[in-house]
């Protein structure tokens, strides 16, 4: 609130009053000029920051927000999947269906160590199995994490995303290992369990940990025996695909063990 001193226009104002009026007018004018100057400075600063951000982010591939990237019809609207997926898991599942699976189909079933050995053989039949089996869904999400982590460029400030995908992948992998152990302890040998073992073996091959991969293949052979032998299940598709990966890595010991499991 401001108080303005006024005088009777018929009377002559005192010198002191005129001085106070002039001081007040100068103060108001200076304050207004200062406000305009601050507004201009803040506007210029904002433009400079936006320009700097634009230059910094130039050339970066935008990573979609898993929470908002998917439309409703891509988020299991009828709740038919084997497990209820969180928003990030919905994104991982969609990534497998829309990116990983088309890549596998486009490049055939051949998998080499140098080119996408982190992509297991989980094509359409395995996706169908993941829809009805929660353990297979864990394997699918694990594979999607591996693929996303492999696609990130460390030179583009994606270290936090890489760490997140690696952490989630490790958790899904441990979940797969626990599921296999529980199935073996209960003597419950299923197609899903056998597939999990192969997924784990392929991941160790990708990491060049052939000793651990050999243990997985040995466990796979024993599980096949418990299941009733190779004739009791359709091993041709499963083992044929893992054999291609083993040959690409020149793992002679694993090739021999896998071949023995097929006989």
TrEMBL record:
Source domain of life: Eukaryota
PANTHER family registered for this protein in UniProt: TRANSCRIPTION FACTOR (ACR-2), PUTATIVE-RELATED-RELATED (PTHR37540), TRANSCRIPTION FACTOR DOMAIN-CONTAINING PROTEIN (PTHR37540:SF5)
Name of this chain's protein: Transcription factor domain-containing protein
Source organism: Stachybotrys elegans
């Amino acid at each position: 609130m401001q108080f303005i001193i006024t005088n009777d226009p018929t009377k002559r104002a005192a010198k002191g009053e005129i001085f106070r009026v002039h001081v007040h007018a100068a103060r108001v004018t200076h304050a207004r000029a200062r406000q305009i100057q601050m507004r201009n400075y803040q506007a210029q600063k904002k433009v400079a920051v936006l320009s700097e951000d634009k230059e910094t982010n130039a050339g970066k591939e935008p990573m979609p927000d898993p929470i908002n990237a998917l439309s409703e019809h891509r988020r299991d609207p009828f709740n038919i999947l084997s497990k209820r997926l969180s928003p990030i898991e919905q994104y991982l599942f969609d990534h497998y269906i829309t990116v990983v699976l088309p890549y596998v189909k486009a490049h055939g079933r051949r998998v080499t160590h140098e080119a996408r050995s982190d992509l297991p053989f989980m094509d359409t039949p395995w996706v169908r199995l993941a829809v009805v089996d929660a353990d297979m869904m864990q394997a699918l999400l694990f594979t999607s994490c591996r693929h996303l982590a492999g696609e990130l460029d460390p030179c583009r400030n994606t270290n936090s995303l890489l760490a997140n995908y690696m952490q989630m992948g490790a958790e899904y992998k441990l979940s797969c290992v626990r599921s296999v152990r529980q199935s073996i302890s209960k003597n419950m040998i299923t197609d899903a369990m056998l597939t999990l073992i192969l997924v784990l073996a392929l991941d160790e091959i990708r990491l060049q940990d052939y000793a651990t991969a050999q243990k997985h293949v040995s466990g796979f052979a024993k599980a096949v025996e418990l299941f009733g032998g190779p004739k009791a299940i359709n091993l041709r598709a499963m083992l044929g695909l893992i054999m291609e990966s083993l040959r690409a890595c020149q793992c002679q010991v694993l090739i021999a063990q896998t071949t023995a499991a097929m006989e």
